[in-house]
């Protein structure tokens, strides 16, 4: 009779299970947290804020706007109006002086073909024009930032923020604006 191969392995009655305690080492994680914290604190201290520099001239007592003496042909006035509209005219508005003609008020917007094109044309006519920016009561902060950006984009050297006078309010009312 043939013999069949039999297994010599014995199955133990009790399976051996060993319980290992899980141990998490937090040292590398704490070190990484301190490195990240140090990096972000140093980065925040070294990073320079990106702001648009605005320098305002010192006003003379005899000077109305604080921009110095400027010629009538060099001056251009931009009035920031309601609904993101811009009103502008060339020269000064002085109704008390009969030698100064009443300016023609024009209206535009903040598009590339609006105020930017007009500023570039004015700069080609007059190399260094003096731009007077006058915010009306209905103008928004966004309008002010946008016009200062346009001054920076078109590389205007001389511009000033001046208050809206009574003569300019009358000019707006005469042209049907508020």
Quick overview:
The protein has 4 helices and 5 strands. The chain has 178 residues and is α/β, with parallel strands linked by helices.
Overview of the structural elements:
The protein is of the alpha/beta class and 178 residues long. It has a domain at 79-174. It has 4 helices and 5 strands; from the N terminus they run H-E-E-E-H-E-H-E-H. The protein has a 5-stranded mixed β-sheet, covered by helices on one side. The longest helix is centred in the N-terminal third of the chain and has 20 residues, at 27-46. It is rod-shaped, with a radius of gyration of 37 Å. The mean pLDDT is 80. Pfam families: ExbD. Its main location: membrane. Belongs to the ExbD/TolR family. InterPro entries: ExbD (IPR003400). It is a single-pass membrane protein; Single-pass type II membrane protein.
Strand arrangement within the widest β-sheet reads: 3-2-1-4-5
Average of the residue pLDDT scores: 80
Computed Rg: 37 Å
Oligomer: single chain
Termini separation comes to: 120 Å
Instruction: Give the total of beta strands.
Output: 5
- Percent strand: 5-15%
Global geometry: rod-shaped
Task: Profile the largest sheet.
Answer: 5 strands, mixed
Structural class: alpha/beta
Order of helices and strands: HEEEHEHEH
**What are the low-pLDDT stretches, counting only 5+ consecutive residues below 50?**
none
Q: Helical element count? A: 4
């Amino acid at each position: 009779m043939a013999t069949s191969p039999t297994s010599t392995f014995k199955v133990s009655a009790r399976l051996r299970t060993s319980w290992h305690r899980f141990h998490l080492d937090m040292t590398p994680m704490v070190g990484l947290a301190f490195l990240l914290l140090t990096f972000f604190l140093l980065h925040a201290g070294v990073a320079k804020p990106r702001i648009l520099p605005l320098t305002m001239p010192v006003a003379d007592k005899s000077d109305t706007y604080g921009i110095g003496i400027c010629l009538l042909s060099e001056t251009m006035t931009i009035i920031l109006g309601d609904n993101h509209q811009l009103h502008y005219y060339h020269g000064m508005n002085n109704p008390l002086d009969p030698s100064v003609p009443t300016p023609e008020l024009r209206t535009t917007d903040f598009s590339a073909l609006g105020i930017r094109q007009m500023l570039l044309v004015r700069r080609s006519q007059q190399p260094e024009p003096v731009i007077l920016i006058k915010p009306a009561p209905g103008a928004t902060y966004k309008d002010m930032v946008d016009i200062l950006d346009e001054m920076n984009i078109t590389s205007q050297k001389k511009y000033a923020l001046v208050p809206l006078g009574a003569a300019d309010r009358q000019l707006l009312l005469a042209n049907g604006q508020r």
